[in-house]
Amino acid sequence: MKELISTFLSPARVLLLSILFVFAGVFSVFGAEPLKIGVLATLGVEQCLKSWTPMADYLTGQIPGQTFVIVPLTHAQVAPAVQEGKVDFILSQFLYLCRAGAALRR
Q1: Domain holding 86: CATH number?
Q2: Residue 67 CA, distance from chain mean position
Q3: Is there a contact between 36 and 89 (Cβ–Cβ < 8 Å)?
Q4: What is the chain's pLDDT, residue by residue, as a tens digit (106 residues)?
């Protein structure tokens, strides 16, 4: 159990949870639409969902009236998903996000 908790509360997840709770007031604007969290699925879709769905479920339980879903993405899918509004948040490696942001500005 202790290992499960320490895995769930990794530094990246704690940071993401903190950011999401800071913007909790904004979530009420979205209403019934699920908020989509794009996650870089470096180990494949199945492993991504297995690792991150508990966090989405936790957030759904903590923020009344809001649903969160995980959207696994490959490196090639991140920039288009952001550009096309298919995700509301992105969870990825910082350097990759910088490169994806630069690509979006071109």
Answers
A1: 3.40.190.10
A2: 12
A3: yes
A4: 445 445 555 666 655 555 555 555 554 455 578 999 999 999 999 999 999 999 999 999 999 999 999 999 998 898 889 889 999 988 877 665 566 566 666 6
DSSP 8-state secondary structure symbol assigned to residue 85: T
Question: Count of residues for the chain?
Answer: 106
User: Which helix H or strand E contains 39, and what residues bound it?
Assistant: strand 35-40
**What is the total count of domains within the chain?**
1
Distance between CA 72 and CA 41 in Å, rounded? 5
Tell me the C-alpha distance between 19 and 55, whole Å.
13
